[in-house]
Amino acid sequence: MKGALVAEAGDVHWLRADVALAAAARRQVGQLARGLCLPEEQVARAELCVTEMATNLLKHAVDGSLVLRVVRARGHAAVECLSLDSGPGIEDVPRALRDGMSAAGSLGIGLGAMGRLADVFGVHTLRGRGTVLSARFWADGGAPASGPVGTSGLTRPIGGEQVCGDSWAVRTVDGHGPDALLLMMCDGLGHGPLAARVADRAREVFRDGHHTSPADVLAEIHRGLRGTRGAALAIALVDPSEQRVRLSGAGNITALVVADGARTGLLSMPGIAGVQLPRPRTFEAPFPPGAALVMHSDGLSDRWKPADFPGLFPQDPVLVAAQVLNQAAVRKDDAGIVVAVHGRP
Ligand SMILES: [Mn+2]
C-alpha cells in the first residue's frame, strides 16, 4: 500500500516589499482564499492580516517579502501567509502580541491584531537580523490532527524566475512505526522551467511511490528522472517510535539533525539522480523528542549553526523553514528547504 501525501511544495507567490505590496498581497490572498471556498468572513480576516503584514514591512523592515500559498495537510487545506525580513527584529514579542500599540514605531506594531485575525499565528525574531511571521487560515473547520512529527517546507526561485527548480514533499509510510514519515528534498540541476520540470517529476514519483526505505525511494526516483537533466536528491525516513532518522541522498543536499543545540550531519553520496546513481548508502542519526531534521538545497549556505537561531527549533516547522531560508539563502540559486520537528503538533 502506498503512503498518503502529508505536504508538498506547491505554487508559492513571493511578493517583494514595494509601494504596491499591500494591494497586491490583498488581491492575491483573496484569490487563494476564495479558491479554497473559505467563508467571506475568513477571507476578510486573511486580507486584513496580509495588509497589516505588508504595512509593517514597508514601514519598519529591511529587505522584506511576503509569501502567499495554499498548504495541504492530510486532506485539509489552508491559506498560509508568511512575512520574511532582514531586520531590525522585534524587541519584545510577548508584549507586541498583547498590544500592538505598545510596540509603536517598531516592527511589532499590528502583531497583536495579526495574531487575533489568523487561525494559527507564529513569530520568530532575531534582533538586528530578521523576523519571520506565519499566519494560517484553515478551510473546512480547522487543522487536521497530526502525529508527533510536524513538517513544512519552503522554496524560493532565483531572482528573475517564476518557477523553482527545488522541490520538497512529505508522505506517510507503511512498514515502520505508525507516525513514521518520508521526506524528499530535490534540487533540479540549474534553474528555470527545465529544472522545475525535474523537481515536479521527482515529486510525482515520490507521491505515487510505494517503497518504504530511503535507499529504495531514492532509486525509484532516479529511474523516474531518466531522460531529464537530473537532480540532487535526498530522502529521509523519520520514525518517532524508534527516535531515528535514516537518509539516502545523491548530490549536494544538506541534511542535518538539530538536537540539544548541536547538529549532526547526514551524508549524501556523490551522484546525480536521473543520470548516475552509485549504490545507495543509508546514514542514521538519533531523532529524540525536541529534535529537528533540516534538509536543504545548495541555494542555502550550509555554514549556519543552531546557536545562530535561539528559540527557533521548538517552534512551528513553517517558522523553522522560513527563518533558516531567510538567514541562509544565497541569491544566486533556487532555494529549497524541508523540515521535520519531533514533538510539535
Ligand atoms: Mn541548486
TrEMBL record:
Q: Start and end of every PPM-type phosphatase domain?
A: 147-341
Under Pfam families, the record lists: HATPase_c_2 (PF13581), SpoIIE (PF07228)
The record's PANTHER family line, in alphabetical order, gives: PHOSPHOSERINE PHOSPHATASE RSBX
| Name used for this protein in its record | SpoIIE family protein phosphatase
Q: Which organism is it from?
A: Streptomyces similanensis
